[in-house]
Amino acid sequence: MSLSTDPYPSRLKESEDRIDPFIRTDPVVHSGNENRWRGPLDEITLSRYERDGFLWIEGFFNQERMEPFFDELREMAQDKELMASDQVIQDPKTGEIRSVFAMHELSEHFNRLTRDPRILGMVRQLLGSDVYIHQSRINDKVGFEGSGFNWHSDFETWHSEDGMPHMRAVSASLMLTDNNEFNGPLMLIPGSHHYFIPCVGETPDANWKDSLKAQLLGVPDQKALARMANRGGIQAPKGPAGSLMLFECNILHASNQNMSPWPRSNLFFVYNSVENLPVEPYAAKSERPEFLGTREKTSSLTMHDDFPKLA
Asked: How many CB atoms lie within 10 A of CB 100?
């Protein structure tokens, strides 16, 4: 797809003129004035999300609610066929599990979680439409050795390699373990979601096989990162297992290596608007696998009305 038809050009050739970061053309909260307050989020919270690009809700679930997820993860670890599949990414340093993708299709517990009415209510309000799961995964960092994740905008990858047209997606991150300052919590640059940063480096074939282990492409240059961080600072929300973070698809984020003895496991659901379905990738020769960027199962999610109301 040519730069002239791409609203967010990235993965540029080294020989091309660099494009400076520019202000996004998509809104942050997509509900129009008539529907802005149709949901659980009040105006103060909506304004904070628009300003910062994320919301942190400590203790959204109680910690006991997380236990069944670990039981299922242990069962998955015993599934040799699954562990040998492309859905499971191993840490490049330790060989331990780094990520497992399409979690909502592997686990009924995780599938039900995606349709928690409280989470869906907030996401629908932010995106102004019904939603489906574009991607789901668990990111795991074992004690002392779990590798980090480089600075990036998720939307840059989803746009370039999955063909997501617009910034109309929200990630919900559920803390399965305590997240503290020592075990590699997610770091974000507040306000960075207002700008798109074009990145240099063409996408090679099957780039996802390497990028999921260590992301080298789609990483903003240090000058642009420093400018964003000097403007908005860096925050790393921390809290107990069961805490929830909603963050905008274009916000810059990263995480350090786990330097503590305590593991860090976080679950991620990416909600995309049903009005923002992927098209041809903007900066890749072919689509990524379905477990990384959903194209087939894009029907609107329905709420689980019987979901346990655990505060």
From this structure: 24
Per the structure block, which two tokens stand in for 262?
Answer: 């305590």
Q: How far apart are CA 29 and CA 128, in angstroms?
A: 7
List helix spans (H) across the chain: 43-52, 67-77, 80-83, 103-106, 108-114, 117-127, 154-157, 208-211, 222-232
Give the lowest-confidence range in 88-97, 143-152, 232-241, 269-278: 88-97
SS3 209: helix
d(CA 212, CA 292): 10
Phi-psi group of 180: left, alpha or beta (phi > 0 → left; psi -120 to 50 → alpha; rest → beta)? beta
pLDDT in tens, 84-125: 889 988 777 777 778 889 999 988 888 999 999 999 999 999
pTM: 0.92
Q: Is the pLDDT of residue 175 over 50?
A: yes
Q: Kindly state which CATH superfamily the domain 88-302 is placed in.
A: q2cbj1_9rhob like domain (2.60.120.620)
Domain ranges within the chain, ordered by starting residue: 88-302
Q: Is 216 exposed, middle or buried (0-12, 13-18, 19+ CB in 10 A)?
A: exposed
For residues 166-176, b (16+ Cβ closer than 10 Å) or e, as one string? Answer: bbbbbbbbbbb
- Dist CA 54 CA 38 (whole Å): 19
